[in-house]
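User:
Can I borrow your eye for a moment on a structure tokenisation matter? Would you put together a sequence-and-structure record for a protein of your own picking? Please set it down just below, with no commentary around it:
AI:
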Amino acid sequence: MSSYNVALNFEDGVTRFVTCKTGEKVLDAAFRARINLPMDCSDGVCGTCKCRAESGSYDLGDDYIDDALTEDEKESGLVLTCQMVPESDCVIAVPASSTACKTEQSRFTATVSKVEPRNDAAVVLELDVDATAPVFLPGQYVNIDVPGSGQYRSYSFSSAPGQSTISFLIKRIPGGVMSTWLESAQPGNKVELTGPLGSFYLRAVERPLLFLAGGTGLAPFLSMLEVLARANSQQRAHLIYGVTRELDLVQVDAIEAYAAKLPNFTCSTVVADTDSTHPRKGWVTQHMPAEALNDGDVDVYLCGPPPMVDAVRKYFDDNGVKPNGFHYEKFTPNAAVRTA
């Protein structure tokens, strides 16, 4: 019997996955997982369970009335979860908070397997998952409890979903809570994680992609690139990786390896330091080729510190650039809370 994973993305950034059996409706699978999705009639009459399917294939049948879901709404990707039967893995945006649906964030335990410094800029942290490999969407993040501190920090997965070892690219901050702990962390140490979280993730790939990464904002793109490579994607994609100093350029070997795996993937690096000898100096917006923007028929993904995100958004506004899709995430390295 076939089954499909359905990601339920709630308004507060929490993501929960449910498994739909063959012929099972999403609403029923959610209830079986004790997730109370919005509903009233459950018969395709009221429209209360209306959500948006962001990816995947499914069947809505014809047992609902037009007042509950119009043809225009259906064409735009809206669905009734009480009627939706997945025919592949799907992603659904739920217009309600996880607390309103009486569910909560998932927590799991992992074991440190590797702590690998990259120059003085970052640390690669690899964790072995003690139980079932966590399910997440490429680009999402988790909260990692910092042992002994009573605090947590948020980091994007740099590994692809479905692996028993997960990895993160963590900025080194002198005196930082996580950075201080990583200085003495050893293989075998246990950590607690909460997630996955976030609305920044790779959507269905239907047009060229432009990835814009700032510093350790590279992490989610490594996850996305691995997913694209596994799918043998033929879609055109370009990554621009901007940093402050040359020493901040890490994982470049991993990025370049994807150029060999993905026939239509290209990448470039940019260093802001004007004293650098790097061939491309300045800001990401100064090295954005017109062909990568594809006259707006492009999906742009942007992850970096707030000044970079704001600068790219201003550049798009000032130059009349209107990408078909524009997904971004800001992060502050020392903060426990991220915004997207």
About this structure: The mean pLDDT is 93. The longest strand covers residues 107-118.
